[in-house]
Write a structure and sequence with these properties.
Helix content is 39%, strand content 19%. It is of the alpha/beta class. It has a single domain (4-149), classed as Rossmann fold, CATH 3.40.50. Helix 1 crosses helix 5. The radius of gyration is 14 Å and the shape is globular. It binds flavin mononucleotide. The site of flavin mononucleotide has 22 residues, from helix 1 and strand 4. This is Flavodoxin-like domain-containing protein. It holds the Pfam family Flavodoxin_1. It comes from Psittacicella hinzii.
């Protein structure tokens, strides 16, 4: 059975809105049911078969405070997602920082250390270049949706 989650890691709300926008589109255009969760625990999503993570970067290349426990739990778990088939990682950050999109890059490393690779390299959104990060996230998701749902 498909268990599809769209989750966000956010401090100021941008990544949350992007996640909500993707979930709405998934239901309308792809007729799929996704569960939307902001900074969930690992227990809440460990049965995922399909997972989209949208995470912004704060501090100096760090995870949002509320998302850090999930990253740590994935890191500590031997097999965090036993049923995972498809993973898509979307980062939101600002190229004004040396640590541009550091959080999603770090998350990709954590997944890789568990033998889990996303369907493509993390997709990076630069808020310096887009005024509507949620719509950019949506178009990036849509561009990879066929492969994600295949
Ligand atoms: C205090 C602060 C620190 C930030 N640090 C980084 C950073 O290290 N790397 C980066 O790419 N973006 C950084 N950003 C930019 C945020 O990732 C960007 O504003 C993003 O849209 C925030 O997303 P959110 O609303 O989901 O929290 C920082 C922003 C703030 C306010």
């Amino acid at each position: 059975m498909t268990k599809f989650y769209v989750i966000s890691g956010s401090t100021l709300g941008t990544a949350e809105v992007a996640a909500e926008t993707i979930v709405e589109e998934v239901e309308q255009s792809f007729a799929k049911k996704a569960e939307l969760l902001h900074s969930p625990s690992l227990e809440q999503i460990s049965d995922a078969t399909h997972l989209v993570v949208i995470c912004s970067t704060h501090g100096a290349g760090e995870f949002p405070d509320t998302f850090a426990p999930l990253a740590q739990a994935i890191s500590k778990s031997e097999k965090p997602f036993p049923s995972l088939e498809k993973l898509l990682l979307i980062g939101i950050g600002s190229s004004d920082y040396d640590t541009y999109n550091g959080a999603i890059r770090e998350l990709a490393k954590i997944f890789a250390s568990k033998g889990i690779e996303p369907i493509v390299e993390p997709l990076l959104i630069d808020v310096v270049e887009t005024f509507e990060p949620d719509l950019t996230a949506l178009s990036l998701f849509t561009a990879h949706a066929d492969e994600f749902f295949a």
